[in-house]
Amino acid sequence: MEELTPAEIVRELDRYIVGQAEAKRAVAVAMRNRWRRQRLPSELREEVVPKNIIMIGPTGVGKTEIARRLARLANSPFLKIEASKFTEVGYVGRDVDSIIRDLTEIAKNMVRQENTQEVREQAAVQAEERLLDLLLPTPPHLTRDSEKGEDLDDLGQQHYFQTREKFRSYLREGKLQDREVELEVAERGMPLIEILPGSGMEEMDIQIKDMLGGLFPQRKKRRRVKVPEALKLLTEQEAQKLIDMDKVIQEAIARVEQTGIVFLDELDKVAGREGGHGPDVSREGVQRDLLPIIEGSTVSTKYGAVRTDHILFIAAGAFHVSKPSDLIPELQGRFPIRVELDSLSKEDFVRILTEPQNALIKQYTALLATEGIEIQFTPDAIDEIAALAALVNERTENIGARRLHTVLEKLLEEISFRGPELRGQQVAIDSAYVRSRLQNLAQDQDLSRYIL
Q1: Domains of the chain as residue ranges with CATH
Q2: Which residues are registered as beta bridge partners of 428?
Q3: For residue range 237-269, what is the model confidence (pLDDT) as tens digits?
């Protein structure tokens, strides 16, 4: 990521997301500014805060996908959360500190996975030795490292090691796939205690579980499993022994603080409306609770304190009823960059169906190819699908590119259902086929509301 310029970041995003150039430029600059900040003197580096972004646009135009692809590109801990899930402190519901706790957990799993991959080769070697011990128990008073082997004569030692190597070759050739072994695995226990959610209760729940978990050792049980599963379980066990969890947690917290990205969806749902009566525990109160985290504070997690000063927050919302200026002024000030995403047209739908690396046409073609069915979409068929999706979006609720999923599922329903019967056949889908399957549904507004 460090070597990517903003233009290169935009080009990478273009591989998966059609259009929305302004939003792509904004997130590309935000990510490049992180790279620049790391090269500042330490006293100035702490003063530079991320310029958080609000994406404004209807559903299904690519807001979440831009943020998710950006995080994957930067290898950053990423959390998508809906602002409407939270309630004001003091009421039953999730508190906003859980955002940082969840992000830290994601970062820990990410770092642990990376470390596991680094030691995978060494863990596999050790797991193979342990599995051979189970398949061919070591004779008494003889270990693999023994040089003397006083209780076995030379011929006995030679026979044992020859047999062991034969088992090793059988294992690598897959000749022991159906053999079963018994090994010890950790038992997955149920939670010891559950606390009803409320103000501060989530953190107390974590602390009590950790405290009680430390009092009782982890229970283990013996299982009989086949050799392939045993090798997988033993490799995981050996990898965990080779990983330093203290370093993993330290690295995870550093990643959250320096490169974490939080995608705060449905921000418009917590924008306050003037003239309301009575408490509105999921609107302005939530904004006030979000403010310290976005401004920069320290959140206590089960892995230690996490500072939020340099986490990048990308907020999003349709803002049909409310507008960004309805947010409390302090929160508005923490989102200095605002970009508006365009609604998708028929031409955009054609590009979405064909251009991206994960284009829907490519996905469905590959899925049906697993059944031995070769699907070919003609250009006029793709044009017809895009036109129908745009028409239904216009007449009913506009759900953006998600409409294409519905249209394609309905279009290919018969082929998907009869897949095993059509094995080895070629199916050409042209505009006439699309119209025969979908035209009546699209024209009947009552039907299209329910089906398309």
Answers
A1: 6-106+250-340 (3.40.50.300), 129-245 (no CATH), 346-441 (1.10.8.60)
A2: 376
A3: 888 888 888 999 999 999 999 989 999 988 888
